[in-house]
Amino acid sequence: MLFRNIIPRFLHPALASVVLAILVASPAAAATHVVTQVDMSFSPPDLVINVGDTVQWVWTAGFHTVTNGASLADPNVGKKFDASLTPTTTMFSYTFTAPGTVPYFCRPHLVFGMTGTVTVQVASGVGDVPAHVTLALASAPNPFNPRTLIGYTLPAASGVSAAVHDAAGRLVRQLAVDLQQEAGRHELAWDGAGEDGRVMPAGVYLVTVSGAGLHEATKVTLVK
Ligand SMILES: [Cu+2]
User: Fold this and answer.
1) pTM of the predicted model, to two decimals?
2) Is pLDDT of 169 > 90?
């Protein structure tokens, strides 16, 4: 009798189906993943993302393209995207809406192996795919002067790299290079200065953090 009394109260079939419907209907929040152009390569070269996520390619130097396709012989070259990464076009974003693997390359530097892939997986609500993990990158205060703290959460112990670029995509400051850290929340401070120690002009800067196979970017505004 006790069993009969408890089950309807705590696991009524109608309630259980409502809970299940909410779980199934809640998609993973769409994320933005950053790929940085480093000399004649894309970093990271291979990304795994969820359907609906956006990839943002960030220029640092030179003249490049972000062109979908496996090679120039691929009949689908450039049909999804064929964007420039140059001193005047320093970012390119593309939202992936279908599952599958999309190879891409840089037209001028394909012969030097400047290629990458984006593997788009279907995010599901329950069970089969792990919940979408992010670094939860955020800076505070923002806008800031004289100093901002860049917070992020590592899902596992990892080497962490972090950098600040200006709005033109130039590297301003390397905050960390393969800094070994434990899982959990961490903070890095940026005092608004470049590598030479001089405070940068007021403006918007892009902070990128990589660790545990995750790569995220956030904008911070230095005010005077
Ligand atoms: Cu290139």
Assistant:
1) 0.48
2) no
